[in-house]
Amino acid sequence: MASQQATAPRAWRGTQAEWVVFSTLERLGKVSGRDFAFEANSEEGIAFRFMDPPDLGINVVGLMQNYAMGQDGSIRSLVAKQQLLGLGVYLVFIEDIDLAQDADYYVEEALRYRDHSHMGG
Fold it and tell me: What is the pLDDT of residues 6-22, one digit of tens each?
């Protein structure tokens, strides 16, 4: 079942697609500050860093995400993924178009370390 996509609040520092991930995580029972932390434009390259489980990170990728950020972050994201793997962190990418179709499914898959994006694997 596709999830409803609310508009991000004005105080939100990330993109609309990142808000969809954030609100979906909360709807699935994850608590910000306890289970995960969100940081827009993180220097380490992880938008969603998890404390539970501690080896998981989630980033949103795709055409609309790149447009919202004003850049093509594909290469940066791939480099970050490789660097993080060396540190024991598995970075899962979720396509913004997939979030628009069924955020619940793709976020649940990411929580299972399953990457369906064009950058996954």
Answer: 788 989 999 899 999 99
